[in-house]
C-alpha cells in the first residue's frame, strides 16, 4: 500500500510520538505578524524564554499597518501604533528577522514567505494566522495556529499536533476561459460545506491542478481553512521548483540540487489510501459569487439566490434567512440585480502579480472604467508585487480606470478598527471571508475572483466577465 | 493554565452553525497587545445594537437575566471557525465561560481552548438537543454539571448522564492544568537528536546561525 503526501510530510517531521494520535513535530519555519505574532513574542519575553532558533523565525507588518501612501507607524486604527511598536521591539529583543514597514520586501505574510523562499516544498511552517494553509500550494506542510502554540514553536522548534485524517479532492477537466482557482475553491466549499474539511488534511490533485500555475495553487490552498480543514496540499512539481529556484532563503548550488531531488519524492504514491476521497468534473464550472455570510453561501454567478426553505435543516434555514437579511438580498433574485458600492482587489487570496495582470488586462481589453459611485481599491500583496506591477505599468491602468493604488498589506480584507467601507456598503471583494462585519460593521461582502470583481466594478453591479 | 476537573454552571444556548471567531470577538475589539480586556467585546456584533455606543440587544441571550453568570456555552456545528485569533478563547474565559459544548469545533479554536483550560466537548446533535431542551425550561435552575474525570455531563436527573469522549492527552493536560511548553522543554534532548539526524537528511532546512 502506498503512502500519501501528507503522511510522508508527517513522518519526516516527527520527533517522537506522544500518544496514539499525537506527535511532537519539528517546525522548520515560523512566521509572525503584528496582529497575533506580537502577543506570542510578548508572551515569550514575559516568561523569559528565548527563540530557540531565531534564524528560522520571521516577522512582517501587514495586518494593522495602513496601506495609504505615505504611511508610517501611526494608523487609522486607534491603537494600531502600539501593535507596530511592540512588534518591532519584540523582534529586536528576540533577534528575529523583521520585514518592517519601509522594508522593500514587506507584505502579507503568506505572500512574502514563498516570494522570499522562506516557505519551500516539504518544509513545515506555522504562523498564528489561519490562512497559513496557503503555502500548501508549494507542497509545504503549513498550517495556522494560535498565539500560545506559536510561543511553543518559538521556544522549542516543535509543536504537539494531533494527526488529522487525509482527504483527496480530485478535479477532472480543465478550467474554462475566465474561470479561475478562486472559482474552483468557492465551488469546492459550496459542495463540501464550510465544515466539510474539519479534521482533515486535504490534498488537491488531478488534471485541473496539474494545469494550474503556482500562484493559482496558492489561491486554491489559501481557502482550505474556509473548509475548516487542518491544511491543504498540492504535491510540488517542476513548476513549483522553477518558482522556488534562486529565491533569497532557498538553497543554492549543490544544496538546491539535493533539495529538488528530495522534493520530487514528496508525492502520494500510486495506490495510497485516503480516509476520504471526492472528485469533481469542473470543465463546465462557471464563475462563482457569494450571496451570504459564509463562504459556503455561493452560487454560479447567474443563478438565483436560494430560498431559505430549501436549506437542508432548520438551523441552516435560519442561517440562510439571517444571511440574506444581513446582505440585503432576497431569495429568487440574481446577484446581478444588485448595485455595487465598492470593489476591492487585495488579500493573500488574490492580489499577487498574476491576479493584477488579469484584472488589468480586462481593463485594457474592454477600455471600461470603474462605474460612477463605485469606490474601487487595488492593494498589491507585497513590495515585490507592487514593484513588478509598476514596472509593467499596471498601476497606471488601474489608476486611469478609477482604482486607488495602495501600499502592500491586508488592508480592508478585514476590519482592524480603522479603515472600513461603511455600514450597508455592498462590496465585490477578492478576499476569502464574507463573515458578518469582516470588512467592517454592516459591510456586505461578495467574494469572487479578481476578474469578476473588476468586471463588476466597471458594470456597477455584480456580474462575471463572460466575454473572455 | 487553569486546570479543569469538574464544573457546574448555567448554560447558554447559542444555536447557530459556523459561529466564527470574528463573531466571537471582532478584530476591532482587540485593542491592545494583550490577552485581557476582551470580555466586553465578546459576541459584540450580536450582543449590541450599536457596538460603539454599547447599546445592548435585549433579544440576545447573553443580555437576558436568566442567563446571567452563564459559564457553559451550547453552540452549533463547526464552532470557532475562521481566524486563528486566540482572543476568542481569552474573551470567553474572561467572560466566565469554562466550557463550550457543540457538535463539532474548528481545529485551531479547539487547540487554543485546550491550551487555556477551556473545555470543548463535541457532542452528538441528539444529546445536545436534549441539553438545550432541559436548559430552556429554566436556565438559572437547570444547571449542567460537567465532569472531566468521568467524561460525563449531568443535566435532567430523570435522564441518564451523557458520556462524552475526549482525546486522552488533552484530558490529561486539562485535568492537571499543564503548561505545554514546560512539558516539551523536558524533551529537548530528543529534539536535538532529531536535528542531528535531520540535518544529514535535509541540510537545506538549517539556515545556519548568523
Ligand atoms: S489578507 Fe486577509 S486573510 Fe490574508 S492574512 Fe491578511 S487579514 Fe488574513
Strand order of the largest sheet of chain B: 1-8-9-10
For the biggest β-sheet of chain A, the strand order reads 5-4-3-6-7
Oligomer: heterodimer
Percentage of residues in helical conformation of chain A: 25-40%
pLDDT under 50 segments of chain B (min length 5)?
Answer: none
Ligand names: iron/sulfur cluster
Largest sheet of chain A: 5 strands, parallel
Mean pLDDT of chain B: 94
Distance between the termini of chain B: 35 Å
Q: Count the strands of chain A? A: 19
Q: For the terminal residues of chain A, how far apart are their CA atoms? A: 45 Å
Low-confidence stretches of chain A: none
The global form of chain A is globular
Q: Label the structural class of chain B.
A: alpha/beta
Number of strands of chain B: 10
Describe the protein.
The complex is a heterodimer of chains A (468) and B (210). By secondary structure, chain A is α/β, with parallel strands linked by helices. Chain A has 15 helices and 19 strands. In chain A, the strands form five sheets. A five-stranded parallel β-sheet of chain A has the order 5-4-3-6-7, with helices on one face. A five-stranded parallel β-sheet of chain A has the order 17-16-15-18-19. In chain A, strands 11-10-9-12 form a four-stranded parallel β-sheet. In chain A, strand 1 and strand 2 form a beta hairpin. In chain A, helix 2 crosses helix 5. The relative contact order of chain A is 0.14. The mean pLDDT of chain A is 97. Chain B is an alpha/beta fold and 210 residues long. A four-stranded antiparallel β-sheet of chain B has the order 1-8-9-10. Chain B has a four-stranded parallel β-sheet with strand order 2-5-6-7, with helices on both faces. Chain B starts with 5 loop residues before the first strand and ends in a 9-residue tail after the last helix. The model of chain B has no long low-confidence stretch (mean pLDDT 94). The interface between A and B is large, with 80 and 59 residues. The complex binds iron/sulfur cluster. The site of iron/sulfur cluster has 13 residues of chain A, from helix 4. The site of iron/sulfur cluster (SF4) has 13 residues of chain A, from helix 4.
Amino acid at each position: 500500500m502506498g503512502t500519501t503526501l501528507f503522511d510522508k510530510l508527517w513522518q519526516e517531521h516527527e520527533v517522537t510520538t506522544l500518544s496514539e494520535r499525537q506527535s511532537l513535530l519539528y517546525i522548520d519555519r515560523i512566521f509572525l505578524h503584528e496582529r497575533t505574532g506580537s502577543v506570542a513574542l510578548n508572551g515569550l519575553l514575559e516568561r523569559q524564554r528565548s527563540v530557540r532558533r531565531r534564524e528560522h523565525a520571521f516577522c512582517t507588518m501587514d495586518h494593522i499597518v495602513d496601506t495609504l501612501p505615505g504611511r508610517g507607524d501611526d494608523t487609522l486604527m486607534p491603537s494600531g501604533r502600539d501593535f507596530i511598536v511592540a512588534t518591532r521591539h519584540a523582534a529586536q529583543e528576540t533577534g528575529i528577522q523583521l520585514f518592517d514597514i519601509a522594508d522593500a520586501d514587506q507584505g502579507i505574510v503568506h505572500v512574502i514567505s514563498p516570494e522570499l523562499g522562506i516557505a519551500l516544498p516539504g518544509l513545515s511552517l506555522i504562523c498564528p494566522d489561519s490562512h497559513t494553509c496557503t503555502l500548501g500550494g508549494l507542497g509545504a506542510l503549513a498550517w495556522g495556529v494560535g498565539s500560545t502554540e506559536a510561543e511553543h514553536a518559538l521556544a522549542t522548534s516543535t509543536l504537539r499536533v494531533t494527526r488529522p485524517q487525509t482527504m483527496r479532492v480530485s478535479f477532472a477537466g480543465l478550467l474554462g476561459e475566465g474561470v479561475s482557482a478562486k472559482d474552483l475553491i468557492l465551488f469546492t466549499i459550496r459542495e463540501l460545506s464550510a465544515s466539510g474539511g474539519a479534521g482533515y488534511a486535504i490534498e488537491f490533485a488531478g488534471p485541473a491542478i496539474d494545469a494550474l500555475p503556482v500562484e493559482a495553487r496558492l489561491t486554491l490552498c489559501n481557502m482550505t481553512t474556509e473548509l475548516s480543514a487542518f491544511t491543504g496540499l498540492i504535491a510540488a512539481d517542476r513548476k513549483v521548483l522553477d518558482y522556488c529556484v534562486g529565491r533569497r532563503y532557498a538553497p543554492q548550488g549543490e544544496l538546491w540540487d539535493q533539495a529538488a531531488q528530495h522534493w520530487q519524492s514528496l508525492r502520494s504514491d500510486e495506490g495510497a489510501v485516503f480516509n476520504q476521497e471526492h472528485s469533481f468534473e469542473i470543465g463546465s464550472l462557471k464563475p462563482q459569487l457569494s450571496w451570504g455570510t459564509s463562504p459556503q453561501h455561493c452560487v454560479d454567478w447567474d443563478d438565483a439566490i436560494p430560498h431559505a426553505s430549501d436549506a437542508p435543516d432548520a438551523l441552516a434555514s435560519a442561517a440562510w434567512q439571517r444571511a440574506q437579511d444581513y446582505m440585503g438580498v432576497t431569495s429568487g433574485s440574481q446577484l446581478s440585480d444588485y448595485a455595487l458600492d465598492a470593489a476591492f482587489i487585495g488579500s493573500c487570496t488574490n492580489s499577487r502579480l498574476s491576479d493584477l495582470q488579469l484584472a488589468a488586462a480586462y481593463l485594457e481589453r474592454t477600455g471600461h472604467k470603474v462605474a460612477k459611485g463605485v469606490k474601487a481599491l487595488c492593494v498589491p500583496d507585497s513590495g515585490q508585487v507592487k514593484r513588478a506591477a509598476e514596472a509593467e505599468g499596471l498601476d497606471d491602468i488601474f489608476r486611469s480606470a478609477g482604482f486607488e493604488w495602495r501600499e502592500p498589506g491586508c488592508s480592508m480584507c478585514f476590519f482592524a478598527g480603522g479603515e472600513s467601507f461603511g455600514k450597508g456598503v455592498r462590496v465585490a471583494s477578492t478576499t476569502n471571508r464574507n463573515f458578518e462585519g469582516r470588512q467592517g460593521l454592516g459591510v456586505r461582502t461578495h467574494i469572487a475572483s479578481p476578474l469578476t470583481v473588476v468586471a463588476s466594478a466597471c458594470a456597477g453591479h455584480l456580474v462575471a466577465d463572460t466575454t473572455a | 493554565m487553569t486546570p479543569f476537573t469538574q464544573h457546574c454552571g448555567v448554560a447558554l444556548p447559542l444555536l447557530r452553525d459556523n459561529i466564527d471567531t470574528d463573531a466571537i470577538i471582532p478584530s476591532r475589539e482587540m485593542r491592545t497587545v494583550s490577552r485581557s480586556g476582551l470580555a466586553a467585546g465578546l459576541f459584540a456584533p450580536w450582543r449590541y445594537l450599536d457596538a460603539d455606543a454599547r447599546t445592548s440587544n435585549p433579544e440576545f441571550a447573553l443580555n437576558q437575566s436568566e442567563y446571567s453568570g452563564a459559564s457553559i456555552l451550547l453552540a452549533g456545528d463547526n464552532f470557532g471557525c475562521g481566524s486563528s485569533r486566540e482572543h476568542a478563547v481569552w474573551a470567553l474565559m474572561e467572560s466566565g465561560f469554562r466550557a463550550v459544548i457543540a457538535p463539532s469545533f474548528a481545529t485551531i479554536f479547539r487547540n487554543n481552548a485546550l491550551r487555556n483550560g477551556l473545555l470543548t466537548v463535541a457532542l452528538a446533535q441528539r444529546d445536545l438537543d436534549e441539553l438545550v431542551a432541559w436548559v430552556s425550561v429554566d436556565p438559572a435552575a437547570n444547571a449542567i454539571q460537567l465532569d472531566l474525570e468521568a467524561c460525563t455531563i449531568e443535566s435532567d436527573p430523570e435522564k441518564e448522564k451523557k458520556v462524552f469522549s475526549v482525546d486522552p492527552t488533552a484530558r490529561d493536560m486539562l485535568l492537571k492544568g499543564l503548561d505545554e511548553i514546560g512539558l516539551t522543554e523536558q524533551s529537548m534532548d530528543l529534539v536535538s537528536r532529531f536535528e542531528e539526524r535531520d540535518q544529514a537528511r535535509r541540510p537545506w532546512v538549517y539556515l545556519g546561525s548568523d
